[in-house]
Please model this.
Amino acid sequence: MTGRSKKPLFEPGLIPAPGALLDWRDSQHFDRWQDRPCALCDKPTPMRSHYGEPVHKACAEDWIAANPTEARLGRFASDVQPKKRRRDDNHA
Model:
């Protein structure tokens, strides 16, 4: 990836453990207008990383599993998850 100091388009969350799945629920991971070649397999994809890099989610997960040390630098990460509210937290 070029420009590692490039600021994410939106805040990345945790980097999954090798073999775990990325959580890319945010719509910013999907470009509904243009497929671009995946940075890892060169096949077209509408998916984008937090940095806007075109990449299939499965390719990113495979890359994390094959490159666990480099993965800690945050090339691919899950979305930030909102804190879950407790059921007894009733501050109405």
